[in-house]
Design brief:
Elements: H1 30-41, E1 49-53, E2 60-64, E3 70-74, E4 82-86, E5 89-93, E6 99-103, H2 105-109, E7 116-119, E8 123-125, H3 127-134, H4 179-182, E9 189-190, E10 206-215, E11 225-229, E12 235-244, E13 252-262, H5 273-286, E14 290-294, E15 297-303, E16 309-315, E17 326-337, E18 341-344, E19 350-356, E20 360-368, E21 372-374, E22 380-387, E23 396-405, H6 414-427, E24 432-434, E25 438-442, E26 449-455, E27 466-477, E28 480-483, E29 486-493, E30 501-505, E31 520-524
Parallel strand pairs: 1-3, 1-9, 2-6, 3-7, 10-18, 11-19, 20-28, 21-29
Antiparallel strand pairs: 4-5, 5-6, 7-8, 10-12, 12-16, 13-15, 13-17, 14-15, 17-19, 20-22, 22-26, 23-25, 23-27, 24-25, 27-29, 30-31
Length: 536
């Protein structure tokens, strides 16, 4: 006899016998055939069908899929649809922007009793084909076996029309149940339950935005905060990402980045706002993400064709501004998505870069303790060269030191002595050096003051008064600026005199008889200075 070996799940709707029905040549009695036919007609009923129609442009539909269920797509072009797995279900986005969500589809399709999937104009397809399509496989659902054009019944284009009594050998017409009883009709299609006047809602699609930063001080990947050294021209990579449900054709998602921060000198937003905004916009525009700069904000807009994320490299500019530490803060706000919702990922709404700078503005000055000193008393004057602040790490400060004599100085013999005094002080101090002209301070110098002492030498030179002037000039700083335009003077007094002693008289000759006299005068060439003694 001939029997239909297909289960109800094997039959395409409206196709008697199903696409896979076969005819076998074995013979049997009419009674046996009738019993088998009756048994086939009284088997368990097929699962209730859920009819899924294409929603209008931008519309949505949702259905929960169960194992052993039956899905009937009517007017749905799956071959051109975008199919994605989402939270255990299938998200089907049609070419017109309409969305169908099959909740729990993955578990049902992978179960021992997968759902029957019927596509209008195509027939039955394997439930696993839709899952395969989410991994990039082509959804090959070319028409299979079904009624041939103009044929009311049959096994498809490759099968002959069915007539009762002609399926097998030796079967007489009338020995079988009528065709419509022998082949179980599919149950009525079920439509999705919706409230009166409402369309079935699709799952709400959501976009999520995040910002992260990685740089010199971030180890182990992106973080929310890094520290950069301006003098090393450190860089930080900022990544802005849009995750969540992918955008479909016609949809956009937006977020706003605000550039903020502060600097040590109190200037709002420091000196980096415009350059950072321009860099973010340029990076986004380079991959076709729309970016618009307005003041200290950048508005970003994605569409379905854009990459989900982009990065921008920010490099600290080693300027001479005294702006350490600067803080760059990038904050996300105003997320939005057309046809859905948008949010900012918790904990990833802000990225901060602290920019540390070694720049200094150092003033170098000089002072001394005496206005004048005496040679005879062995007087001393202490000169102190001072920095307005300690030398910062990595910095080096230089200043030229000039020793000059005043206009009334008879001899500059003390210049070498003053230079030697400064040389000795520098040699004895860590982080300080002197080459006879330039005094250098490195970050190894602890403190801000360097002192040296000038002591008057009691010589026999008649060089009083002498004036020594120590002048600072031509200051430099490796990191930042330095200035020096200061001088101090000391007058050296001396009691030394160069006295000529002479003698004169009034007469060339005198007479004894006349009792003549001659007056002799011993003279000093100058008056004796206080404390001086002259002998002859």
């Amino acid at each position: 006899m001939a029997t239909d070996t297909n289960t109800p799940q094997d039959k395409a709707p409206g196709t008697p016998g199903g696409a896979r029905g076969t005819a076998h040549g074995a013979t049997t009695s009419a009674d046996e055939a009738l019993q088998l036919a009756q048994a086939a007609g009284t088997s368990d009923s097929a699962p209730a069908a859920v009819t899924i129609t294409a929603p209008p442009a931008g519309g949505r539909a949702e259905v929960t899929v169960e194992a052993g269920g039956r899905l009937v797509f009517q007017g749905v072009d799956l071959a051109t649809a975008q199919i994605q797995q989402f939270e255990g279900g299938l998200l089907i986005t049609l070419a017109n922007g309409g969305v169908i969500f099959l909740a729990d589809y993955t578990a049902a399709a992978e179960s021992a009793n997968p759902p029957v999937v019927e596509v209008e104009g195509i027939g039955t397809i394997d439930a696993g084909q839709l899952l395969a399509a989410t991994s990039g496989a082509n959804l090959d659902i070319a028409p299979g076996a079904g009624p041939a054009a103009g044929v009311a019944h049959g096994g498809g284009a490759a099968f002959a029309t069915f007539t009762p009594g002609t399926i097998g050998d030796g079967l007489a017409q009338g020995s079988l149940q009528p065709n419509e009883d022998f082949l179980r009709s599919p149950p009525e299609h079920e439509t999705l339950p919706v409230a009166d006047g409402e369309e079935e809602a699709a799952p709400i699609l959501n976009s999520e935005f995040s910002i992260q930063i990685s740089g010199a001080s971030s180890t182990g990947g992106p973080a929310q905060a890094v520290t950069l050294q301006e003098d090393s021209s450190d860089s930080a990579e900022v990544t802005i990402a849009m995750t969540g449900d992918p955008l479909v054709a016609g949809q956009t998602a937006t977020v706003v980045i605000t550039i903020g921060g502060d600097t040590e000198n109190g200037a709002p937003n420091g000196d980096f706002t415009q350059s950072v905004a321009d860099a973010i916009a340029a990076a986004a525009n380079s991959i076709n993400i729309d970016a618009v700069v307005s003041g200290n904000t950048v508005s970003l807009t994605w569409d379905a064709t854009d990459p989900s994320s982009f990065s921008v490299l920010l490099t600290a500019n080693d300027d001479a501004l005294l702006d350490s530490p600067e803080t760059l803060v990038l904050t996300l706000s105003d997320p939005a998505r057309s046809g859905g919702t948008a949010a900012i990922v918790g904990g990833a709404e802000e990225a901060t870069a602290t920019i540390e700078d070694l720049d200094q503005d150092i003033t170098i000055s000089i002072s001394d303790t005496q206005a004048s000193i005496s040679e005879e008393a062995g007087g001393s004057d202490v000169f102190t060269i001072s920095l307005s602040e300690a030398v910062g790490a990595g910095n080096t400060i230089t200043v030229d030191v000039d020793f000059a004599t005043g206009s009334d100085t008879e001899d500059a013999d003390f210049v070498a002595t003053a230079q030697a005094a400064l040389q000795a002080a520098a040699d004895a101090t860590a982080g300080v050096s002197f080459d006879g002209t330039t005094l250098t301070f490195t970050d190894a110098f602890a403190g801000t003051d360097l002192s040296f002492t000038l002591t008057a030498a009691d010589d026999d030179l008649t060089d009083s008064p002498e004036t020594l002037t120590v002048t600072l000039s031509n200051a430099t700083a490796v990191n930042g600026t330095a200035s020096a335009a200061d001088a101090e003077s000391v007058t050296i007094t001396d009691l030394d005199q160069d006295i000529v002693i002479s003698i004169a008289d009034t007469q060339a000759s005198i007479s004894e008889e006349a009792g003549g006299s001659d007056t002799f005068t011993i003279s000093l060439s100058e008056a004796m200075a206080a404390g001086n003694t002259v002998t002859v």
